[in-house]
Design brief:
single chain, mainly alpha, 3 helices, rod-shaped
Length: about 100
């Protein structure tokens, strides 16, 4: 075999072995973060769902008022406040996505 090709094949084998070692080390380091990132991912999923279905917030806020009709005004204020908070979170999230 050509000596240059032999050197290239040896270098390739060395690089493949180094890459495998680095992948294994990275996997060990990332494993520590798996559980916290799973929690964060679920939280973002909930926020995404709530952001896509704001009527559920309004319905959840108005459900107790059906049980106690005298307190409808306070629940409407709470629902409106929740709607404003979700709207601002959605707009902040969209602007953050556009920047990245």
């Amino acid at each position: 075999m050509n000596p240059a090709l032999t050197r290239i094949a040896e270098r390739r084998a060395e690089l493949v072995a180094r890459a495998a070692s680095q992948r294994a080390a990275l996997g060990r380091h990332v494993e520590v973060w798996r559980r916290p990132l799973t929690f964060v991912d679920k939280g973002l999923g909930v926020l995404r769902y709530v952001g896509n279905h704001p009527a559920w917030i309004l319905g959840g806020a108005l459900a107790p008022s059906a049980l106690q009709p005298g307190r409808l005004g306070s629940w409407l204020r709470r629902g409106f406040l929740a709607f404003q908070v979700v709207s601002r979170l959605r707009s902040a999230h969209r602007s953050r996505q556009e920047r990245s």
